[in-house]
Structure formats: structure tokens, C-alpha cells
Amino acid sequence: MKRKSFILLLIVSVFLLTSCTKNYYENKGDKYFDAQDYENAEKYYLKALEKEADSHTYIKLADLHRNNHQYDKEGNTILKGMMELDDPIDLNIRFSQYQTLVGDADKAQISLLHLLYQKFDEELFKEIIKIYLENRHITTIDYYYNEFKDQIKDLETKILAYKAVGPDENLKEELEKELLDSNDIKAYKALIERAYDYHEYEKVEELLPHLESMDGELEFYKIYSQLLAMKDLFIMNKQIGHFINMDYKDLVVIYKNIDNPSHIYLTLMDGKTGEIVIDKIMEDFYPDFIDLDVYETKDELDQLAMTSYYGASASSGKKFSIYEFSKDDFKEIEPNFESDLEIKLLEEFKIQVESKNLNKRYIIEIPKAHRLAYIEDGQYNEEGIPNADNGPRTYGDGYSLRYRGDYKDTISVITGFGGTYSYSAERLGYIDELYNEIDGSFKCTAFKIKDIEGMVRESEFIEGVQVITLSEPEQEKEETETEKIHYPERLIEDDYKLRIGDKTIFVDNNIDYITKLLGSGEVELIEHINEDVSMYEYKIDGLTILYMEKDGPTGKQQFNDTILVDKPGIKTIRGLEVGIDEERLEKLYGLKNLFYEDENESIYLYQEDGYTIHMDLYVVVDKKDKRVIRFNYSTNL
Fold first, then answer.
1. Domain boundaries, given as residue ranges, for the chain
2. Which is deepest, 123, 319, 364, 474, by most CB within 10 Å?
3. Fold observed for domain 1-82
């Protein structure tokens, strides 16, 4: 009897162990992750994925690599999960966060918008707004919010949209009313923050008493009461963070006194007491303007990250500092950036950028059209041999603090390289380095070369080193008289002409001319951008044109923003048309510049040879049918 009971218990134990294996491995990985033992955590997460792959575990593994400052492994982990799983919305969102961190915010937003138009998902839209709020130089969200607003249900999305909305006054007022009617704490805080930033101080005074009566919002009330008291000063910037209190938010304000504008002051308000504890002149500090952010580390007080700008140019003379606070004083810390990054000239007119610590090397070919300038500048002789005593050129182009997960501790340093002293404003390319504080020093944890126009990229691993080559594309070999390629890979003027039946339009034609030629079609007002500028949509027989209309001193001006073709019958001079196969597209334009792809579609990007029309061509190919399903011209200004 005992033997039977033992056998039964053993069978049950084995069954329970095998049925919980995935959770067992994942839980073990979580414990090691929390203890910052990333080596063992990775081992157990990989075992969990072997048992059952899911996006949740892939995201944990990606977070592990990010916390360990292994950004290439982070990106590759997410991509692997996206390829293995079906429709992983959360992995697409997580990949966009990775792209934003490594400096590809534009690509992140475009990728998410592409998914959003396939199938609306509110979490996707939230992430698009967050990317915009972190990187306001990219496309405004006003148009997209108007398009999808009937499907948006979550108040958090509306709060984010209100923070991000641009000059569309109707949309701003609509969202403002919804937030006021919600009686939600976060909504009221967003209303107060925006009103203060736009100097609508009476509105702030009206809204603040609502927060005073809400539980847990007294510190926010104290902060904005103090800011109202300082409204007559010239405030250069402000930042809220845990600078001297772990349990309360403190306020830092950098300002000038109007009576004595030569001095810049730093003020710190204690979030616990509401009292000003620091109000001091910043010695030998005379920037033209500044950016403030919170430098965050886990389980420690925040520090203030400050980027200072000197001179009229927004991209010159930047300085990056970190400030730490005590109860009655502050101290500046200038980060010492440690990197083994080496930039050197190679033979055959090439520049190498390498980090041995990171096992990564770029080799960039100097375009043939620019080589004479390098020879005249003394960097090369006519045979392409570098002068050891002269070059390469480098230029410090700025700093920023990058978001990473729930906190921010990654500093980006942009360095321009290449070019000649004769044309000092020009760079061959830009290096984006990421730095993290490790053992008390800021060490380079990743770097990449920003995209260089017109270059072909090839990547291979040689003895454990990733070698990325960027070179000019070779001219296509002629095949036969009938298949000869008559056009360059870069777009020329004829590539911006569209044939519609027996009519031809130029993508930059005035919309009034186009409507007279093709017919009135359907015209719809999309957005009032401001009192002088509006955006309209014109549609007719597979052609959609988004255009701007502006009232100027010389009368009405119109500018085309996007031209979309999504039906057969409209062709470019080369022969691009909806419905042609991918092989034909390759013969006409080439397929070297793959801009984006997912399991359903590939998007190829083509750009002009020069800077005249300022429009890029995007061609979308269905991966299953291998045919063009739409293409569009979009402004790159």
C-alpha cells in the first residue's frame, strides 16, 4: 500500500513539475533579474522561451539586456520575438521604445503608424503620442488624433493627446472640455501644466483649488502655487523631480531677474514643506537657453540634467552637466565620458569608426564627388592615401538625455565626422554614442552611424567583430537593349511626374491646376493648423493629395504635402504603377533601400538627386503576392 502511494505521489509530482516548467523557469529568471544577476536571469528566461514563446517573456529578456546596457542584444531579442509570434502588438511597442532610445524616433513613429492604419489599437496610438512628447521635432499628432478620435475610449490617451496637441484650437478646446468633465486628478494636472506653459495664469488660478481638495495632490498644488508666485520673473526652464525627497516631488527653477538679467539663478523648492530652500546665483554661467531633465537612477535621489546652448545656432556650443542637491546647496558634476571610439582615415578614400570594447566597426566610403575637397584640404593625396598628420575632422554636435524604460539614465552624445575645413558646416555623417554610468564613470555602451544618404549598407561578422560597410552604390550593369536601365537610382525631375490617362501632372503642381486638369474630385478640410494655414485632402480615382493652404501677403499659397496612389492606372515616367511585380520594381528603381518591413509588407524608400523638390518616394510591396499595392510621395521638409 505504501509503495502504491509513493508511486502515485511520484507521478503527481512529475506531472506538476512538467506542467509548470515554463512558469518555473520564468519565476527563477525574475528572482535573478531583481537581484541584478543578469547572467543567470538570461539563462532562465531562455529556458522559459524554449518551453513556450510569448511576448511577455521576450520583453523581460529585452529589459534585461537594456538594464545591462547591451543595446544591440536588446533590439535583436525583440526582433526575434516579433518574427516568431503572430501579431505581437506589445513587442511592436517595445521595439519602438528601443528605436527611440537608440535615436530612431522617426522610424519608430512611422512603423507604429503603419500598423495603426492596418488595424486600430489604442495602445499603439498611446505609444505614438509618447514618442512625440519625447521628440517634438517629429510629425505632429493633430491629424492622426482627429482621424482616430471616435475609436479612442481611454482617458489616459486623451490626456496624452492634450499634452501633445499642436495649433488646432478646435481639437484643443474639445479635449480640454473632456478633461474638465472627467473630474480626474491626472486630467486636471495636465490642464494646469499646459495652461502654465502657455502663460494662461488665470486659468491656473481657477484650476488649482480643485487639486487642493484631492487626496495626495497637495505637493502638485504647492509646486504650481510657487510657480504662480514667480510668474513675473523670466523663467528659462523648470523641472520637477525627487531632488531632496524620496517621497515628495521637488521643484527646480532656473530664472533671470528682469531688473538684473546678467545673473542666472537656481531655485529649489522642498516638495515636503513647500518652502524655498535654495535661491542662488549660478556663477560663471551665461547660456542663451537651456534644457532641463531628470537624471534618474533606481532607489536613489534624482539629479538634474542640464544641457546649455551658447550662440544663435541650436546645434552649436552645447554643454552637458549634472547637478546634485543637498538641503541647502547644489553641486555641478561634469560627466567624464569614457570611450575607446577611434576615427581614422583609411586608404582608398575611406573613414573607419571603431570601438574594440563594443566589437563594432564602420567603414564609410567618401563619395567620389567629394574626394577632390578632401585632397585640397590635405587629408588625402590623389592616389587616395591618407595624410597621417591631417584629419579626420570631428565636430561636437550635442547632448541629450534618452528615455529608458521606467527611468532615464542614458546620455546621447552626437559627433559629426568627415568633411573639410573649407566646408566646416558639412559632415560626412554623424556618430550617436550612448553613455551609462558604470562603476562611477560614464562609459560608452553603444554607438551607431546615423544614416548617410545614398549609401549601400552591408554587415558581416569577422572574428567576432561586427563590420558595417557604407559605400556608394555601383552602377547597374546593362542587361539587354529591352531591359536597359535608363534612369539613375536617385530620383530625377521626371520621376516626379504622374501620367493619368492622356494627362500628366507634376507632384509639385498647384492643387488648383490639378483640379482643373483632372476634375474637382472630393475635397475635405482635414485640419485648421492656425488662423492662416489649413490642411485639405483631395481624392479622385485612386489619387489622394494632402495639401496645405496658406494666406500670405501676396494672397493664397498652396503646397502639396503627400501624394498617394493606391489603384492601377496612374504611372510614373519610369513605369511604376500599382500592380506591377517586385521584379519589375527592381529593374525600374532597385530594391536596395528597404525602409521598413513586417510579415505582410515591405516599404522601399527613394530620394531625389539633389535638394530641389524635397519629396521622398515610398513604394509598398505586398510580401505574399510580391506586387506593388500603393506608393506615395511625401515632403521631407
1. 1-82, 103-179, 337-471, 493-635
2. 364
3. 1.25.40
